[in-house]
Amino acid sequence: MDLNSTILAVSSPPGHSTRGIVRCSGADAFKLLVPRLSAELLIERGIRSVRFRLAEVSVPALLSLTPAPRSYTGEDSFELQVPGHPHLLGRVINGLLEDAHRGGLNARPAGPGEFTARAFLSGRIKLAQAESVAALVAARSDGEIQAAERMRDDRLGRLADIVTDTLANALALVEAGIDFTEEEDVTAIELGDLQDRIKKAIASINDHLSRSVGLESLQSLPWVVLEGPANAGKSTLFNALLCRERAVVSGMQGTTRDVLIEPLALSGVQNAEVLLIDVAGEESPRTHLDEAMQEAASMARSRADLRIRCIPPHESSPSAEDDVIRVATMADLIDGSRTDVDLSISVKQQQGLDELRSMIEHRMIERCSRLAGDAFVLAPRQEAALVASGKLLQEASSLLVSWESSGTLEAPELIAGLIRDALDSIGEINGVISPDEILDRVFSSFCIGK
What is the mean pLDDT of residues 306-335? Predict the structure, then answer.
């Protein structure tokens, strides 16, 4: 990774917005701004309103200056907030790169995850915290955002530091005993003391694993799919369950053409969510677009953990199935109640909506991953590192138990090797003892500008 150049990128999401952000970090960051701003604005740390010059015009902007080493990356950095038009953001980036070329400055566009990689490499954050940034960027629901925030609090990093310190001290004493094996009456560490240290590390790892929730499980929310014929009231029910107008509702057949996906919180359980899916109504395709629409709907139904069958008035209900809730929609248009369905609903009269939410929660509660107050969130790589370290330490502990009768370390080199391998595994969490491929795998998942 080239750390000598100054990097620039648009750091706000794609598309139009009220404001967009251009981020820059590196030794020449502040020099890049000189041709575009008044020099007196580039003296001290802070946030100020400026006019950023672009050829024949200037645009209003907010400039945030953060000198090294107190910035996110540990380098001279700035963020420029301008009106969030993609073309304007592109012109700002291109203008700064052109200035760099004319002035002989070493600047280039940033690569994926490069800002956070520099923060890690400069010691501003740990590797586990860097991974939380990627998780936050990729979050699709409130639960995933909370999971990313939980990863960023560095409890995992602190655990890794404590276990690393315990094992490193134990390893040093074991290796000292190997070095002085020829000396009489020299015992660097007693077998019982070593066993206590290893058991303490194992207990810390197992406690963390027992209270952990995998990030993958939090990102794999159960699918609840609304299905049924065209004009069965699926989109109306979709909006009613979300309590907002997300899907277009029309009496015209075939209004819903895309698969609409939105997170739905289960109110009865803290942090539990499902993905509510609205698909096109079942009908015979007439065009290639209709065929694609029906194929997408079919794929969503096949992936569903729970299907809600919307049955319009005067249509018969299918037989009961374990993964289907049969809902009679538009109950206000018929007289009496239906006995061939699981629930009758009228969005217009707000009838049956709470009951349906309760039924969804009852069916899905066991499949929803939830974050307890003391739970840890682990990325797959982090969980694998903890498990590997724990297994190696357990192997070392078993050897020590087998030597208790003699009271001596019969094969200290073997114990030292196991502890060192455990240290390598636990060190991967914070990147303290981490091969290059681990760093590449972590940061390649980022998007540009992060």
Answer: 87
DSSP class per residue in 43-90: SSSEEEEEEEEETTEEEEEEEEEE-TTSSSSSS-EEEEEEEE-HHHHH
At 448, is the secondary structure helix, strand, or coil?
Answer: coil
Read off the tokens for 219.
């990102």
Q: How far is CA 121 from CA 67, 82, 158, in A?
A: 17, 29, 18
Task: Compute the distance between CA of residue 393 and CA of residue 326 in angstroms, rounded to an integer.
Answer: 53
Two tokens at 20?
A: 């967009």
The count of C-alpha atoms lying within 13 angstroms of the C-alpha of 170, restricted to the half-sphere facing its C-beta, is 31
**Strand, helix or coil at 187?**
coil
Burial-class residue 200 by CB neighbours within 10 Å (0-12, 13-18, 19+): middle
E-strand ranges in 151-240 read 212-214, 223-227
pLDDT bin (cut points 50, 70, 90) of residue 187 is low
Of 159, 151, 242, 259, give the one whose Cα is nearest residue 205: 159
Beta bridge partners of 265: 273
**pTM (2 d.p.):** 0.56
Q: Note the residue count of the chain.
A: 450
51: amino acid identity, one letter: R
Q: What is the pLDDT of residues 380-422, one digit of tens each?
A: 788 888 999 999 999 999 999 998 888 778 888 898 899 999 9
Domains defined along the chain, listed by start = 6-110 (3.30.1360.120), 137-215+376-443 (1.20.120.430), 221-367 (3.40.50.300)
Residue 433 reports pLDDT greater than 50: no
The token pair at 431 is: 């990147």
Cα-based distances in Å from 321 to 306, 309, 318, 340 = 10, 10, 9, 13
Exposed, middle or buried: residue 138 (CB in 10 Å: 0-12, 13-18, 19+)?
middle
Query: Which among 392, 377, 378, 376 has a CA at the least distance from the CA of 424?
Result: 392
Name the amino acid, one letter, at 85: H
pLDDT tens per residue, range 111-123: 888 999 999 888 8
- Of 133, 140, 189, nearest to 166 by C-alpha is 189
pLDDT, residue 434, reads 43
Residue linked to tokens 């069916």: 363
**Has residue 131 got a pLDDT over 80?**
no
**Amino acid letter, 205:** I
